[in-house]
Write a structure and sequence with these properties.
This protein is mainly α. The protein has 2 helices and 2 strands, in the order ββαα. Strands 1-2 form a two-stranded antiparallel ribbon. 0% of the residues are buried.
């Protein structure tokens, strides 16, 4: 049983189309293409409490949407 096959210039996994991997690769590159002035900006750090509050709020919103049948975005 094979999980992979050749796809153009790369290896394709049965569960993921090779084109999707290429699109993801380009999106990740764009995510990390910072302007030079942004590299000098101090990072904003969050406290553990802020992160936990964010996660709890996200979970609450997702549960409401799932219970009402609204699509989760």
């Amino acid at each position: 049983m094979s999980c992979c096959k050749q796809a153009g210039s790369g290896l394709e996994i049965d569960e993921v189309a090779f084109e999707a991997v290429l699109r993801l690769k380009e999106e990740v590159r764009q995510d990390y293409a910072y302007a030079p002035e942004d590299l000098e900006t101090p990072l904003q750090l969050f406290s553990l409490e802020e992160i936990v509050e964010y996660l709890e709020a996200s979970i609450d919103r997702a549960v409401v949407r799932l219970e009402t049948g609204s699509p989760v975005r």
